Amino acid sequence: MYKIAVIPGDGTGPEVTAEALKVLKTVADKFGFKYESTEFDFGGERYKRTGETLPESALEELRGFNAILLGAIGHPDVAPGILEKGILLKARFELDQYINLRPVRLYPGVDTPLKDKGPDEIDYCVVRENTGDQYTGAGGFTLKGTPDEVAVQTAVYNRFQVDRCLRYAFEYTRRYGKKARNKGEHNTLALVGKTNVLTYVYDLWERAFHEMGEKEYPDVKREYYHVDATCMWMVKNPELFDVLVTGNMFGDIITDLGAITQGGMGLAAGGNINPDGVSMFEPIGGSAPKYTGKGVINPLAAICATSMMLETLGEQDAATAIEDTVRFLTANKLKSMDAGRMGYSTSEVGDLVAQHVADQ
Ligand code: IPM
Ligand code: MN
Questions:
Q1: Which segments of the chain does DSSP mark as H helices, in order?
Q2: 287 and 183 housed in the same domain
Q3: Could you say which of 236, 262, 288 is where a domain stops?
Q4: What separation in Å is there between the alpha carbon of 178 and the centre of ligand 2?
């Protein structure tokens, strides 16, 4: 019996989460596992009502679940940063979800802005470190509000954080790299950094990367790219990549670029993973206030997040069934992945997935 915490959140979050839960119910019936879902109302509305973001008691409660499914966080009436830091980042940090796993995969039939590239070329995964870097909040102001004001916000990493992230990335590459999937000659892990300028932080990453790779993962091919060049290759030759590993800030930036090459936020899913604790899965798009309540938002990213959740829980067959169904629908049914242009409403897309999974 899996205990799933559900945080629908703000904007279109509840709409896409409802479709994800519809699909979860269908695969549970079909593949014979049991779960119990508990909904939490964290988000902008609750904050406006009570001033609370993610209280300590809730964190304690969340630790008792097997996984968390999140819709979206972000409310037009709440100043930027409050909900993001107070809910999303707080959960990532406090639950020590030190990996942010973001596949960049173009599904068949989906338009990409990349010329002459298809599903064979756009098929890689970013392992983003999820607890360090500029995200720790180390820094501050001096002389704030004066002409001499100084602001500092520092990238922070220790060896422990770097090593545990690299270990996850090497293991992931060994298991899901292109060779493991019969799609290439090697399983290749590339470190994305900026060793020519960030000569402390990415020097640490690079030394740790090669030490661990040489000693423990000689079967995994190692590469290194500067982050700026990575952006260029992600557009020009995405087929170069297999698994990429990088710090929190670069990972944040390059995964938005990756998402748009896989057909936009309607399809991009990610997992905030604590391999020894409770992980949280989310569509990586925002709360899309302008589409809220219209029934036009694409729920496939939330549905793909559910598939990632099931994979992490060990329900591989259910996860694969969802993934295959999404591929079938993008190839054969949906006209576009964009909100309002799918040819179906949000709940019709959820119905299509559920129906197809059940019929398989
Ligand atoms: C993401 C988002 C968050 C981040 C924001 C909302 C804090 O952009 O999940 O990529 O920067 O990590
Ligand atoms: Mn981001």
A1: 13-31, 44-50, 56-62, 82-83, 90-94, 159-176, 201-216, 227-236, 248-261, 300-313, 316-332, 346-359
A2: no
A3: 262
A4: 26
